[in-house]
Design brief:
single chain, alpha+beta, Nucleoside Triphosphate Pyrophosphohydrolase, two-stranded antiparallel ribbon, 3 helices, globular
């Protein structure tokens, strides 16, 4: 069975296209920066729509509710693991003072018998597209391509999260093939 996650990708054009990403928490990611950032996302539960999951996960991982705007379904993106990420995007200039993420429990150090809590996301920031391509985990970089296509279709700004001509950008697989 395919695992499906859903997330929110906020973007702004100020003056260049930028995206809002979260740095993954925990000891594995603590000293990593390149390919250690992600869109805020999580697994879709059986009784939940991908959109509801994306909204919930953003609030849980960033510590603030997602902006109350209309989100465009950017597409579905298959990762090399087989997992599918459903991404919803909106143009919004979110400003936060700090990240207050939910946590996960991990035995740390390994084989120590000590269980510790770590934040799922330990930082969140805006990045221009060149930096985002370096920071974002490799399998999610194709999402940036779809966003650039969306913004180009809209001629720049989408404007406060309103839908762009009712269009939905297609998803891509991690290898760049179109999925929809």
């Amino acid at each position: 069975m395919t695992v499906t996650s859903a997330g929110i990708l906020l973007y702004r054009v100020a003056p260049e296209l930028q995206v809002f990403l979260g740095h993954m928490g925990g000891p594995f990611w603590a000293r990593k920066d390149a390919a250690a950032w992600s869109i805020p996302k999580g697994i879709v539960e059986a009784d939940e729509s991908p959109y509801a999951t994306a909204l919930r996960e953003f609030a849980e991982e960033i510590g603030t509710p997602p902006p109350p705007v209309d989100y465009l379904r950017l597409g579905e993106f298959r990762q090399s693991s087989g997992k599918v990420i459903v991404v919803f995007a909106a143009d919004h200039d979110l400003r936060i003072d700090r990240v207050v993420s939910n946590t996960f429990t991990l035995e740390w150090p390994p084989r120590s018998g000590r269980l510790r809590e770590f934040p799922e996301i330990d930082d969140a920031r805006w990045f221009d597209m060149a930096d985002a391509r370096i920071k974002l985990v490799a399998g999610q970089r194709v999402i940036l391509d779809a966003l650039e296509e969306l913004v180009a279709l809209a001629g720049g700004r989408q404007g406060d999260g309103r839908r762009v001509d009712g269009r939905q950008a297609g998803g891509r697989q991690a290898d760049g093939r179109q999925t929809g």
